[in-house]
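Changelog note: in this version the structure field was regenerated for every chain. One regenerated record is shown below for reference.
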Amino acid sequence: MSIQSPRADAAAVPATIERVTETILPTRHGTFRLVGYRDGAGTEHVALALGIEDAPVSPGTAPLVRVHSECLTGDAFGSWRCDCGEQLDAALAAISAEGRGVVVYVRGHEGRGIGLLAKLKAYALQDGGVDTVDANTALGLPVDDRRYDQAAEILQDLGISAVRLLSGNPAKEEALEELGIAVVERRNLPVPDRAENAGYLATKRARMRHDAPAADAWESLLDGVVPAAPAPGEAEELTHRYGYLTQPGGQVIGQLRQSLDGFIASRSGDAGLHEDRGDHGHLQRLRALVDAVVVGASTVLAEDCSLAVEDVPGTSPVRVVLDSAAKVGADARVLADDGVPTLWIVSRDAMVPGGLPASVEVVRLPAEDFEPRRVLAVLHARGMGRVLVEGGGNTVSRFLEAGALDRLYLTTAPVLVGDGVPGIRFSGSDVLAEARTAPVRRFVFGQDICTEFNFAAVR
């Protein structure tokens, strides 16, 4: 069946836009200039403009523009049956980040122009398994009855004749072009699909020519690319938190979780502090973004950790076990035949059991040569530039004291242990003015507080 495109013609109802009023609108994305309009049918529309004055805008400096169709359920109620509300929020965020652009909010476009109650009737049919296209036609309604002449006139009133369009809908681009607005670029907003709207969005892509989804922010980071305009929410947070790890060059990162009073386990060695960790997802993402993850033998013996990437997309890094005396048993999870490469770094005279999996490489160093920078040299020689030093307290502290860490994520759990296995400890200074510090960022993970020290920034 032929899907009806949004109409550019103005034969049915002339737009004849009239500017009615203007004010300012402070939002979470900044303060926008808010211009109110009324068209020839009496429908009211608004434009949220940032960095746009009432003067012709050169086509060579086309601003970001989102022509957004009114959607009460998505925009006001936060419905996940569609992605409208998230698209609107992402557009405002992208314009704010660039400092210049317009959102034209077109009313009368509810349900792609069929109206609110008709849209709800179509929803009811979709509840029974009918897709969004067939639901409209079953009601005797057009698939898309929107017109964009009012949006084009609003842009022209603002002095805009060329735009970089924030939309995944090629029909919207075509309609604006027919109305005299040059679309010099069309950019799909990076809004993730949700379980609640995946079918709806798939239908729009399969039957209404909409673009495939913009790259997922996390997948982009895994590919070594920082998303240019991450959507507000998780995508924006992930980009902010981990974007630096996509940059060329090596990074050595320390990560440790300890109690508020500085312990990683009780005095009996009970490491139950790590069983319900609020920073679990953060730790998994760090593992997924590095080439190697380093732990000391004591951590392996206490926790029998696998060091694998779990619960987030990504590939497990090479496991590196610092174990001078080869105390780790052959049945330890880090030495398992699970397809994840492992470097077991031991001293030259340490007794290592035979029959190890092919994925385990034994690296021998002089017993006195386990200094952090020597270990990093071994890893760098194997092409592992991004290194996560995950534990335990003694190992992370040694790398910190050696000045080998570019960043340190120190997470504190809301627990007071009193006495136990210490976390961060190193030879300090007699003068507090000489205490180690660096620019910091803080993240909240459930009840945990994570402080990131950027030591590379002060070198």
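Spot check on this record: Residues 350 and 396 are 23 Å apart (CA to CA). The chain has two domains: 18-214, 248-458.
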